[in-house]
Amino acid sequence: MAESPSSAVREARRTLGNRLREMRKGAGFTTARAFAARAGWSESKASRMENGVTSPSREDLRQYAELCGAPDTYADLVAALHNIDELYVEWWRVEGRGLEPVQRARVPLYQRTRRFRVYEPSVIPGLVQTPDYARVIMSRIIAFSGIPDDTEKAVEARIHRQSVLYDASRRFALLVEEAALRARFGDAGIMAAQLGHLLKAAALPQVSFGIIPMSADRVMWPVEGFWIFDDRQVLIELVTAEVTVKQPSEIAFYTRTFAELAAMACYGPQARALIADAISALG
Question: Where is the HTH cro/C1-type domain (predicted)?
């Protein structure tokens, strides 16, 4: 697994590596080199895993458990590895069967979340996308990634997830850069319908919709899009992977970032005026 920009992933690897080191020393292998020799590995393999440089495989963990005389620890070690795998998921691993499974996999997370905080720098958030706008985006992702074309099912799944938006007991703070209103996904008709739908969604009492104007005096620079689900986890979509942050200190950092960005945004009539300007610019 490639090195993640999230310190949570690095910390999780180090924690698992420290546990493997303690097991190895407890079993009498004084050096990682000695353990690697016993396991039939290259000299550096055990060292890399114990220092959190690389993640072990399930078979590597089985070797540790058996050679250290602690077979009962295998299940716990695999659970720790699974947690690391959840923190940094490369798109090719989850999109191989198309986009529809990815969309449906998020449904339980959406259903249990009561407070959504969403920042998108260049696209309209999925929660308030029209089917046509979503269709254009998904078809381009599919073409770019060369994955199976399940556009219609993926769009249907995304629209189905939007049902939570109409639950008045939840709260939604949606924040975009003005550039997201201007970025063309589809023809003028699709964009006009999308921006019109945005006006309706922003009027819902449970929704706070903010737009950071291009003319804003910036105190926080644009960052990658991220979604905060309650105070339990953050999802960040990178070009190559999705990062899940669950470490409280990192969640707090994203919460602070969201607050800084939100302070620069305009709301209500000013936000509606920016949307109207974007519609007018379509010609």
Answer: 20-77
